[in-house]
Amino acid sequence: MSLRQMEYFITVVEQRSFTRAAELLHVTQPALSHQIKALEKSVGGPLLERLPRGVRLTQMGRAYLPHAELAVRSAARARRAARAAAGAEGGELHIAAVHSVAVGVLPDVFACWRRAHPGVALVLHEYGTTEALEEAVARGTADLAVGPPPLHWQGPVVQVDEEEIVLVVPFDDRLAGRTSVRLEELADHSWVRCAMEPVVEGQAFLDRACNRAGFGPRTAVRTQHTSTAVRMAAAGVGVAIAPSHVVRGPVGEDCVVLSADPPWRRALTVFSRVELTGAAAAFAELLGSTGPYAGRAVDPPPRGGYAACADHDPAAA
Fold first, then answer.
1. How far is CA 66 from CA 9, 10, 35, 71, in A?
2. 26 C-beta neighbours (distance < 10 Å), count
3. Environment class of 248 (CB within 10 Å of its CB; exposed 0-12, middle 13-18, buried 19+)
4. Which position among 111, 237, 244, 283 has the lowest Cβ density within 10 Å, counted as fewest Cβ atoms?
């Protein structure tokens, strides 16, 4: 079997039609059918069931498809990595990031990259959780990921920085004149919860932290994105938690930012399937030297996102 045959097979599955797949691949339909039959012969059985209108996967086809997709993505990733490592014009570096990092950290880093490496394009893939980042890199969708330390990653993990997790309140909050606050002082407040909030030891981070401070958080609203949670907090809906780099710019201009006492911090890492080389290594180095916390001394990354924050829970101090 060949990589081209896998690509043909995936295209037929996606288009659900030999005719449309042939048009998309710029080959004749007989040539496409011949390649699919050759692939099926190599595999040892039918992968597709031909229907009067379209096609569908056989049981063998369903088992074969994810492996073919991974092989094709890995080959594309290998081509990208080779071109990017050489600084070749047209080379691409695919980067996966959690939304808060994409909004708060990467714009300045990407701008610096474009000035230093104009021949290597960056492609950003945004995700809601560290687990989704792990899947994106494992499947070959991205060359590397930027986010909190992954929970179950077996490949290289490099800590490039550290970020503080802060509390966001509106200007008219009774604590607005402060710079820091102990969590128990917010027991009477409502909270804006974000779907991207990590789970620590089987429990949502805020639930865990507040329970250890002696109260349960009263949820006012749940949002999908961190930036939305910050805007809700600024409007007075409730207190939100967010990485400090998200509220440094326009997203946080209409709110008050409070540090937790003691501070909550977590590692910012880069992780990949293989050791970072070429453009990927250069990007990680640039991220560490231009990020919002560049120059700070950092410890080896703990596994599990907010785990570092949980260890600095005010209730545990």
1. 11, 9, 19, 9
2. 6
3. middle
4. 111
Task: Please report, as a single letter, which amino acid is at residue 227.
Answer: S
The residue ranges of the chain whose pLDDT is under 70 are 77, 80-90, 249-252, 291-317
Is the Cβ–Cβ distance between 161 and 296 less than 8 Å? yes
Query: How far apart are the C-alpha atoms of 41 and 103, rounded to whole Å?
Result: 49
Q: Note the maximum CA span of the chain.
A: 74
First to last CA, the chain: 60
The pLDDT score that the predictor gives to residue 300 is: 42
3-state secondary structure of 266: strand
Report the distance separating Cα 232 and Cα 41, nearest Å: 58
What pLDDT sits at residue 315? 32
Residue 22, C-beta contacts closer than 8 angstroms, at least 6 positions apart:
28, 29, 31, 32
Helix/strand/coil (H/E/C) assignment for every residue in 26-51: CCCHHHHHHHHHHHHHHHCCCCEEEC
